[in-house]
Amino acid sequence: PTGSFAGYLARLGFRFQGLSWEDAERANQLPAHHKDPMDRMLIATALGSDMIVITDDSWFAAYGVKTIW
Description:
Elements: H1 5-11, H2 21-29, H3 37-49, E1 52-54, E2 66-68
Parallel strand pairs: 1-2
Helix pairs in contact: 2-3
């Protein structure tokens, strides 16, 4: 196959989600189940946008985030 990984994901219907100030505030208010700040931003963004996260990190479930992997 040719093309980029980003193009492949777009063809499958995945979309890019930027970070917002609201996401940062939500991340700061999350319980401290997960210590990684970037993962907490992903969790906050997913919760705020009702999105599914691609991860095999089992800690995401503690926040009620939908995941696939």
